[in-house]
Each structure stands twice: as C-alpha cells, then as structure tokens.
User: Which sequence fits this backbone?
C-alpha cells in the first residue's frame, strides 16, 4: 500500500514536531533502562549458533526458549546491537553471565552480556579462531589455526580488559580444548598430537602422541580423558582434487602419564566428530557416517548400532535433561534443529537461520 500524506496547519505541525521530539526522548530513556531481553541463567535458554554464508557477515545466534518451546529471535545479536555479528559464527563459550562468540572468518570474538545479549567488547587481531575455553580466573584461551598447514596457536585473553596478552604456539590446526586436572589439553587436528598447557604459566609443558586428526576432548565421571580423532584425509592441489591419502578415526581413552598405554578404539574409516557427554558424564556421544552413536564410558568396544540414524551438521546434549539437539543445515535456505529424547526418539523441530552448527545452554 502506498503511504498517505495529510497536510497540517503550521501550528499543528510545530506542535506535532515538538511532541514527537519529547516522545523520542522518552523512548530513548526507556531503551537505556529497559533492555530488549533480560535472560536468567536458569537453563531455559538455548543459543543456536548459525554460521551464515562464508564470505558474508550474516552469521547469527538464534534464541530458543525451552519454556515456551519456541524460537524467540533468529537474529538476536542484530536485534539488540543493531549491527551484523559477522562472517562464520564458529562457537560460543559461556563464563557466568558473559558469552564469548567466536566468529571465524571475521577474525574476532564478540564479548556478550548474556542477560541482555548486548555487546560488551570486540576482540580483534585473531587468525582463524575456532574455540574458546575458560582456562583460569580472568583468563580465556582461544584456539587459532592461523594458516592452513602451518603452526597453530592459542591466544590468551584477559577477560578483565578483553585484550589478548599472549599467544602460545601449539600444533597444526588446533581445535577443541579441555581443562582437566589443572592443565589445558589442545587437540591439534592436522597432526596426531595433543598439546598440554599449564594455564598458570601459559607454557606448553608436554605434547602427547595420539592418533591422526584429534578434534574434541571430554573428561568422564572417573576423571579419564577421552580424545576423538577423526583421521586425516589429504587431497590433491588441483581440480578435481583427488584423495591422495586417508587414515581412519579413533576414540582414545588417554593415559596422560603413559600415552602408549592408552585404550585405542579404531573406526573402519575417517570422519568421526563432536565428542559429547551426558549430564552424569557416564555416556559418550559422537557423530559418525551420518548417525549419532552413544557409548558407555565403561565400554571396551565401539557401539555398532546408532542411537539416531540422522546426519547432523552439529549436535549437543542439554545438561539439564540429556535432550539431544541436532541441526540440519542445507547450504542454501533456512536451517533447522530437531530435539530428541535421550532414547533417540524425536520430540519436535524448529526453523532457525543459515547453517546452524551448535547449541549453547544457558
């Protein structure tokens, strides 16, 4: 419909202009004191990370309410901050009421007040950042690939000033990290090692041998560290980029004192990814060959039957009730996620944004 314009007398126009200015001032005052969101850290909120299209700054975070069973906002960052979040939303860390959103291709981390989702600071100068972990009080580690085929690093972020104070050289293409027993374990995905950093000194104290392609790590209820190694596939450098070599995936129960004594459970091929734990840390979950598998931490062999026969772009386990969240991500158009009972039975599904890859519970 075309807009309708009506002519007012001069006095009326001056009155309306003055009234409008007062109204705008009133609205501005309300905006300063009344945020759009006032979220409680009660486990009822789920942040869905949407990568967005590579090369464009349309990555976003969807806000899902478990209470109302609905997606509240598919552009939460833009709604609150009136600007783009960035290019390739990779991951997100929660520390108390602060969020650290890693935006890979924008080479930055957005620091967020999670109650309001207002941006607090932007940490720049990173090179292909991947994941973040709380390493110590006032300190967050951020894994960085830096450059394909080259040595990766871990950036040390001072959360009091939101500045990078140091970088620590690790292996090639560092991915997931785990804080366990006072040390930070870093999975170097383009080789077969795990770097061990002392967060008190920010120094690598050991490099542990594992299998090819470690990507994610967890610590179970007994204190044992599990490492999922996805294998490594090498491709030719010219079209049609043929596979030159490929190694299988392995799940490792790591012996940090004597790595050679670790329990190694081999897969038949590569591609296993996203190692997860349930709330009691007694069950392991991972993605492999278009399905999600579940395995007891006391098992001595890999499961042969999947829990969910569905290919996900990303998935996670809700620590409140072990509900499984899995994302479906067509490379064009709207993505969605499906929720499953711990038994693997589907509950419901919801549309989100482009390329949803992860879930953060708050």
Assistant:
């Amino acid at each position: 419909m075309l807009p309708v314009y009506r002519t007012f007398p001069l006095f009326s126009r001056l009155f309306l202009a003055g009234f409008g200015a007062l109204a705008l001032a009133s609205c501005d005052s309300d905006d300063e004191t009344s945020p759009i969101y006032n979220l409680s850290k009660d486990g009822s909120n789920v942040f869905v990370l949407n990568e967005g299209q590579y090369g464009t700054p349309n990555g976003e975070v969807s806000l899902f309410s478990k209470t109302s069973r609905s997606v509240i906002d598919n552009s939460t960052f833009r709604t609150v901050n009136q600007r783009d979040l960035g290019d390739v939303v990779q991951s997100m860390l929660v520390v108390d009421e602060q969020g650290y959103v890693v935006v890979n291709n924008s080479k930055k981390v957005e620091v967020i007040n999670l109650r309001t989702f207002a941006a607090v600071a932007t940490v720049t100068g990173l090179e292909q950042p991947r994941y973040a972990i709380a390493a110590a009080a006032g300190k967050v580690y951020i894994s960085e690939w830096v450059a394909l085929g080259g040595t990766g690093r871990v950036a040390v972020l001072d959360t009091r000033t939101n500045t990078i104070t140091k970088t620590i050289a690790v292996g090639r293409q560092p991915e997931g990290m785990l804080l366990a027993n006072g040390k930070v374990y870093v999975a170097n995905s383009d080789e077969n090692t795990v770097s061990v950093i002392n967060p008190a000194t920010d120094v690598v104290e050991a490099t542990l041998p594992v299998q090819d392609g470690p990507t994610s790590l967890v610590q179970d209820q007994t204190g044992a560290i599990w490492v999922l190694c996805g294998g490594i596939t090498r491709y030719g450098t010219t079209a049609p980029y043929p596979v030159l070599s490929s190694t299988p995936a392995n799940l490792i129960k790591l012996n940090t004192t004597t790595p050679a004594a670790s329990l190694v459970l081999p897969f038949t091929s590569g591609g296993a990814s996203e190692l997860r734990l349930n709330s009691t840390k007694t069950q392991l979950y991972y993605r492999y060959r278009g399905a999600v598998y579940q395995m007891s931490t006391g098992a001595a062999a890999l499961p042969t039957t999947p829990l969910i026969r569905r290919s996900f772009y990303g998935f996670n386990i809700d620590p409140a009730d072990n509900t499984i969240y899995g994302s479906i991500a067509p490379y064009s158009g709207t993505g969605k996620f499906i929720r499953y009972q711990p038994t693997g039975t589907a509950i419901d599904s919801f549309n989100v944004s482009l390329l949803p890859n992860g879930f953060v519970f708050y």
The chain has a mean pLDDT of 92.
